[in-house]
Amino acid sequence: MTDLALPRLSAVLPDKRQVAASFSRAAATYDSVAQLQRGVGDALLQRLPQGLRLGRWLDLGCGTGHFSRALARRFTGSEGVALDIAEGMLNHARPLGGAAHFVAGDAERLPLQAGSCDLVFSSLAVQWCADFATVLSEARRVLKPGGVLAFASLCSGTLAELRDSWAAVDGQVHVNRFRERGDYQRLCAASGLRVVSLQVRAQVLHYPHVRSLTHELKALGAHNLNPGRPGGLTGRARLLGLIQAYEQFRQPQGLPATYQVVYAVLENPL
């Protein structure tokens, strides 16, 4: 099965050049607001198989290199490759170490030799890839027999509160759209990799007001990058409408922002 068998996302996911540019600009501010990213990556690390021994690992979509450094600490003596499509992120990560190699590259065209990695680790990166079947194919290609692909990604339903609040204001695209959870399940099952586990978990963050959420998304580089998004500045009337609509979701802890996180561990057959 390929992505041709499923609704293609190339028309609704951002252009990868825009993704790379946005995350490059956010490199200096990313770590200061990466609460969700830290928690998800830590949970993915905990899902790695016990007793895993690595010669070489790939941190796919390494960002600022936080989890490259975590992998280096966990798997002492291993060789790490940190790869990202955003040059700005690599420039930030490289001086901090962790990996032996920092490489600019695309998850759909990995610049690595076949059978060269024992682990491909990817936390909150592959949701930006329209052709996820190719991502899986490339991961399988670079993995050794018995190697592991562990990824965390976002699926539909993410930031539903923000999406629904904007829908009450206008009909334009304001919130990034992500693949359906069923698509992850089907594509992983058809990848030729053995699915060890695949689960979806909701992660809810709370904010005192809407601006704190939108500021965080911008600081992460993960603000609205969808085709069809409105251009120019958002008018005051629409912002007030958004704030009013979002207030219906308020909880004692604050305004919720729900992320639907896919955690998956797959193994390349021997």
Number of domains: 1
Strand order of the largest sheet: 3-2-1-4-5-7-6
- End-to-end span in angstroms? 22 Å
Q: Helix coverage percent of residues?
A: 25-40%
- Listing every helix as H and every strand as E from the N terminus to the C terminus, the arrangement reads HHHEHEHEEHEHHEHHE
Unreliable segments of 5+ consecutive residues: 1-13, 227-233
Round the Cα radius of gyration to an integer and report it: 19 Å
User: Quick one: CATH superfamily?
Assistant: Vaccinia Virus protein VP39
**Which structural category do the helix and sheet elements fall into?**
alpha/beta
Number of helices: 10
CATH architecture assignment: 3-Layer(aba) Sandwich
Average residue pLDDT = 86
CATH topology: Rossmann fold
Strand content: 15-25%
- Describe the largest sheet: 7 strands, mixed
- DSSP summary, beta strand count: 7
* Overall geometric form: globular
Write out key terms for the chains shown.
Rossmann fold; alpha/beta; 270 residues; 10 helices; 7-stranded mixed beta sheet
Secondary structure topology:
Elements: H1 16-25, H2 27-30, H3 35-46, E1 56-60, H4 66-74, E2 79-84, H5 87-93, E3 101-104, E4 117-123, H6 132-142, E5 143-154, H7 160-167, H8 181-189, E6 194-207, H9 210-220, H10 236-246, E7 255-267
Question: Could you walk me through the main structural features you see in this protein, from its secondary elements to its overall organization?
Answer:
With 270 residues, the protein is an alpha/beta fold. The chain has one domain (3-158, 177-204, 259-267): 3-Layer(aba) Sandwich (Rossmann fold), CATH 3.40.50.150. 34% of the residues lie in helices and 23% in strands. The protein has ten helices and seven strands. The protein has helices at 16-25, 27-30, 35-46, 66-74, 87-93, 132-142, 160-167, 181-189, 210-220, 236-246, and strands at residues 56-60, 79-84, 101-104, 117-123, 143-154, 194-207, 255-267. A seven-stranded mixed β-sheet has the order 3-2-1-4-5-7-6, with helices on both faces. The longest helix is centred in the N-terminal third of the chain and has 12 residues, at 35-46. The radius of gyration is 19 Å and the shape is globular. The two termini are 22 Å apart. The relative contact order is 0.18.
